[in-house]
Structures are given as structure tokens and as C-alpha cells.
Amino acid sequence: MVDRNQATQSKPEQPAAGRESAAEKEAGAPAGANVDSGDEVAAAVSPGPAEATADAPDGDLVPTVESLARELETTRAKEQEYREGLLRAQAELENTRRRAERELANAHKFGVERLLSELLPVCDSMEMGLAAAEQDEADAAKVHEGMALTLRIFQSALEKFGVEQVDPQGAKFDPEFHEAMSMQELEGVESGTVTAVIQKGYVLNGRLVRPAMVMVAK
User: Fold this and answer.
1) Which of 62, 121, 151, 180 stands the most exposed, by the fewest C-beta atoms within 10 Å?
2) Could you list the residue range(s) of the whole structural domain that residue 75 is in?
3) Which regions in the chain score pLDDT beneath 70?
């Protein structure tokens, strides 16, 4: 007599395919529907030829190696042009600076050249006057005339360079241009009037170089 437990254990298992078929039947789906489901999903996900063409980037917008190389060459040419322009500008600036320094040095060195050319005739006149005064038969009147001529030449040379003489004889005392050496009482002379000029003053283009030394009435 066979045991029921043994009979139950010896009963073969139902195939997996049978169980799946039963599940499909319960769900109301056909038995072969599961076979083609993967292909249908792949067909739904992958785009068609028209969609793939629409999504692809425009060929004109994609830079090529040749176009990039041309742009690089153009950029390098512009860079070289700008660099050469900068070097030329720096060289011109350096030349201008050196020229200005040279002109300034020449101005300091030869700035009195024109004044010297105006003073040389004064020197010549003084030498001739001294030579005339050293002669035994020297005429005092002629020597005096020569010295007066020399003084006029000298004053003319000073005026050409903006130098003016300050001779305040009989004028009102001005402390900006005059220096009082002493004061004296004189009848009939207003107080503060310059009565005598001991040494004349000089002004260069309106700027006082040396004040006139004077005597002033009380």
C-alpha cells in the first residue's frame, strides 16, 4: 500500500510555461503576446529615418577643420600686425623722448648764444676805447664819446632780451622796486620822493632783478 505523502511528493511539478500561460489567460492576454513585446518597444523607442534626419545638426553650422585653420591663421596675422604697430609706436615714443632731451640739453648749453652775440659788440667797443685812452695824445672828449657809445650798445642789447632799467630819479618811492639807503630833509620836496639814485635797478620781463638804491626825502 502506497503512502499518500509519498504519492503527493512524487507528483511532477507543473511546467513554468504552463503557469505563465495560466497567468496570461487570467489576465486576458493571448499566450503568444509576450514574444513580440520587446520588438514592439524597441520599434517605439528608436526614431524613424525622418525623425533622425530632423534631429541631426545642420552640416553648415558645424565648423570644419579647414575653416578653423583659416580663422586661426587670420587671428595670428592680426596679432602680428598689432604687435608690429605697437613696436613702431614704442620706437617713435622713444625717439621723441630722446629728441626732447637733446633739445633741452642744447637749450641749457647754448641758451645764451643770442645774448652773447649781442654783447660781443660791447666788448669790441670797450677794447677800442681802452686802446684810445692809452695813447699819449688821447683826447678825453673822444674817449668819453666812445664810452657813451659803448653804454648805448650795451643797453640796446639788454632791451632786446626784455631787460629794463629802473631809474626812479624824482619819482615816488616804491618799496617793490627801490631800496632806500638813507633819508634826507630837503625843502620844497615832498616826503617820500626819491632825491638821488645811487645805483640803478633792472627788471627782466617785469620781474625785479636788482632794486634801485636811492635816497628818499623825509
Assistant:
1) 62
2) 65-111
3) 1-62
